[in-house]
Amino acid sequence: MTIPSSLPSNVRKPGAFHEFEFSARGSAQPLERRFVIIAEKTAAGTAAADTPVQLFGESDGDAKCGVGSLAALMNRKAILQARLSGFGEPEIWVVPLAEPGAGTAATYTLTLSGSATQAKDLILKLAGRLIVVGVNNGDAAATIATAIKDKCDELGPSLPFTAGAAGDVVTLTFRTKGVNGNDVARKTLQLPTGVGLVHAVGVAGAGATSITTALGALYDKRYHGLALANHVTSDAAAILADLLLAWGFGQKNYRFLELGERGSLGTAQTLQASFNDYRVGITACENTGSLPGEIATAVGVSWWAREAPNANLDGELLALDPPDPQDAFTDAEIESALASGVTPLVPAGTYCKLVRKVTSQITVAAAPFEPLREPALPRTVAYMAEQEDIGFTQGFHQETMWADPSGGDDIFARVRDMVIDKHRAAERSRYLRNVDDHLPEIKAEEHPSVAGRILIQDPMTVAGPLHQGAFLHIGYLG
User: What is the pTM of this model?
Assistant: First the structure.
């Protein structure tokens, strides 16, 4: 037989090359897990735009990305989520984007009125952050406005905006220019008697920075999980083109992207339709106060904090602002989201809960295909490709195409044994199952026409997450 391979015959560089085929049937070394944030920085951030740099804690992210920038806030969310998940954290990197030079920063106004007739806290929730301001009996609107501004100054590094007060009006200005500033949720939770407060949009954010250069910078090493602040369909072409290159023979950079959406489920489903790709995850949480980039970060870190490529994230708590009960997805909406390749989040006390993580791919060649909804499948197969890449590179350096006719040393048998050893190690870790069933299918043979190339057929069954139990209860009256 001849094992199928689409590696072009004019590729002559030595090494192992991988391609992937997913089917409806069907000693592991620890691997680095690098999680990358792609989001705007402020001019104060010391990191160079469109250049990967590792982050080491909250203050380091603030310094490199600029206090309160989307990139800095997503870094803070990554650290918080890693602590909540309890599995440690992957390496956290950032490719900061320069804010659009010709863009406009979004602004919001809080207009106060009246005077307080009681001493009571004024409580706001802005971008999912609680703003608690002490108000004294008799405080005028202008006094309260100044107090709100002072509280925002105090909370500065955790807020995506700055605040200014003029008379009885507080103006919030997003820290970076662009459309991503239009995602700030505002609500009033408590007002002292006698005080009025009206929320309004001042100026809509305008402008967007291309992510193409940032994606193109991520080829100096392997990066695994990416979270984007952007959540627009116009980025799909650049992302899909980059994934095609990254997963290609020349790069072997098996990366997965996460995008978040706090708008309607329909908006998230429109975003999913632009991708339909197993390497892209779309997570929806309607009317959460958290920013879309924070949603993408929390989901991505909860996944990549785990070494197991087939990790089960059902019911995972996420460090995100929960929507109000009336905005929570219904059971019908949850099923609609999952069916359409969107990961739904629901409230869980002071957090959000991930119902079930799915990829955005729901069809192959326009036909429904269930297996690739499950992110454990492509991530585990990519994990095995990395394991076998290590085994081939380290174990067969400067080898010759030798097969002993007397049954002695045989390069083809040794390559096959290396693959089987990797499968058995993964089976012991419960990443793969039914390894023995696939032994007859694991083959290594010489390419019929390309000199120096061995073809390896590498079938495997991923030990997928357990999602459901369907019980039939039979009761008898004795």
Answer: 0.93
